[in-house]
Amino acid sequence: MMSTIGLFAHVDAGKTTFAEQLLFHTKSINKPGRVDHKNTFLDHHSVEQERGITVFSEQALIKTDRGHYQIIDTPGHVDFSAEMERMVRVVDFGIIIISAVEGIQGHTETVWQLLKEQEKPVFFFINKLDREGADKESVMNEIEREFDIPIFDATNFFQTEHFPAEVIERIAEQDDLLLEQYLEGDFDENLWKRYMNKMIQTSTIYPCFYGSALQSKGISHVIEALDEWTNKKWERMGPFIGTVYKIRHDKNGHKLTFIKAIQGQLAVRDKINDEKVNELRIYDGQNYRTVDKVHAGQLFTIMGSNQLSIGETIGDTSNPDKYKMLPTMRVKVEYGKEESDREILQLFDLLDAEDPSLQVEWNNESSEIHLHILGVIQLEVLKQVMLERFNKSIDFSPPEILYKETIKQPVMGYGHFEPLRHYAEVHFRIEPGVRDSGVTFENRCHVDDLSLNYQRLIKQHMFERAHTGVMTGSKLTDVHIILINGRAHEKHTSGGDFREASYRALRQGLEQADNILLEPYYEVKIKVHSSLIGRVITDIEKAKGMFDAPVSEGENAVLTGKVPVSTFRNYPVTFASFTKGKGSLQLRYAGYYECHNPEEVVEKIGYDKNLDPIYRSSSVFCSKGESYSVPWQEAKEHMHADIKDI
């Protein structure tokens, strides 16, 4: 039996301490480390030890009398939630650790939603019962209420001779057949155990444990549950399928690609994408051993493959799901004049391979390196990583909000590119897309109008880069581009012509469109004493947020809503001040919505669409051996192919 268990929590809930106890109780380590002692098995990076938080996901192996498990400890700080999300994809079961004092916090909800969407079975462990103010019952009620799921107290389940009555009732509530048998007094313990196992693995019911990881209480019960309820069967036959979930580089700069085997087997000297596998490693913390073969269910690492990237599925051509934890801010990298632009960019490209959410890019116009981030703590870590790994001292500009652009109504876009001895023409219909769909493409062009190879080339050009809008030059998103018509020349069409025509058709359409500026929003949940709810409402209104009517919970009031990141990212400091640390503020990335102050943002960014080095709205035609430019307003009337406005 081989299962991958992911450990998830809001920062400071005790997740890393819990991981240490799992390793200690299964004799994987001789003594549990402590975060405050900077000697934990999995948080071995200096940046983690200094800050006392998990930044990089790490894995360890544990063995019990009944099974082998791969444990992944994930970051609990919101700034590193992109790393956490990548681990969600490869775990078989999740354990969410929740503080018995603080209860469900912002990142806890984010973790829960991701695990739920990926249909991963979940255990809950209520930690820190040794702390003053701990309230196990309150947290269990909160889990059921906030996550709308049936949980049961599993802490002493394996210590009782027979099924606890409350567990029997909870299981019976989820199945009509069992409920009928239960009411008739017909109870077959083996049958109920089988049903219970199935319900846990299909996320119908959720075991909940409690204890204190620091005091080593409650851990053994979780280990018993892993043996009983996490049986995972893998298909070792058939072609190899694997998912790349992490990339790292060793001290010598060699690329390490971490893969979860989903199906089949892989051996040394087998090939992945025509590259021979020279070495297979199984990692356990910082240590590893080499093996000749790996099989479905295992986490393993290969050396040196330059082709593979995070999120790629080997042996499966289906499109992977998009990640949801997206950066909301952009910064410029600042470094001394003595440093080489090329060298600094190469180092950030290496970090980009390890964390694709950075989206590192070189701006030719300003000769600057830009990257995307989730929060300011991430910047502090990046500065330390650059100094320790590469001996490079860098800094960053103040973070700026990442805006996006889309359109309200469908438009037609026309592009023609015909300087001397060149020729290409493209007609697009550009429609508003589904929210968070990015840029999608559809081909309705007939082969009688344009040959299939040119149609494919146009599609390729639409996905070779991230396109930008005309308002601020921000990334274009949520648009559906339909190829309607096009034209090529038998002699004069050459490489790059359809790129020029396609880009011009896209930009010509955007010039006519009702463009919308989008900005990132937080989903906010605030719990304060009822006397302070008026202040909170005022603050959200000032921040241009939207919210539902407050809900009373005893002496407290709970308010939920959405608010722009730009107006609310510094609010936690203000909130902690006026609540004296007694309120609860949860912020989660909610996606992109219409910008609350587009005119102000457009003016501040000052993007001049006519000076964009990549895009032109005009078309180029040729007459009597001379090329001439036609502005976008007149381009449609000059097109050569039939106008098919559909």
Can you walk through the features of this model?
The protein has 646 residues and is an alpha+beta fold. The protein has 4 domains: 2-229, 3-Layer(aba) Sandwich (Rossmann fold); 241-314, Elongation Factor Tu (Ef-tu), domain 3 (Beta Barrel); 329-402, Alpha-Beta Plaits (2-Layer Sandwich); 403-646, Ribosomal Protein S5, domain 2 (2-Layer Sandwich). It contains 18 helices and 35 strands. The protein has a 7-stranded mixed β-sheet, with helices on both faces. α3 packs parallel to α4. The radius of gyration is 28 Å and the shape is globular. 40% of the residues are buried. The mean pLDDT is 91.
Q: What strand line-up does the widest sheet have?
A: 2-3-1-4-5-7-6
The CATH level-2 architecture of the largest domain is identified as 2-Layer Sandwich
How many strand segments?
35
| β-sheet strand percentage | 25-35%
Characterize the biggest β-sheet.
Answer: 7 strands, mixed
Report the structural category. alpha+beta
Structural Rg: 28 Å
The name of the CATH topology of the largest domain is Ribosomal Protein S5, domain 2
Q: What is the overall shape?
A: globular
Count of alpha/pi helices? 18
Parts with pLDDT < 50 across at least 5 consecutive residues: none
How many separate structural domains?
4
Task: Let me know the average pLDDT.
Answer: 91
Please give the alpha-carbon distance between the first and last residues.
57 Å
Task: Give me the oligomer status.
Answer: single chain
CATH class of the largest domain: Alpha Beta
Which bin fits the share of residues in helices?
Answer: 25-40%
GO biological process, one term: ribosome disassembly
Keywords: GTP-binding, Nucleotide-binding, Protein biosynthesis
InterPro entries: EFG_III/V, EFG_V-like, P-loop_NTPase, Ribosomal_Su5_D2-typ_SF, Ribsml_uS5_D2-typ_fold_subgr, Small_GTP-bd, T_Tr_GTP-bd_dom, Transl_B-barrel_sf
Protein name: Small GTP-binding protein domain-containing protein
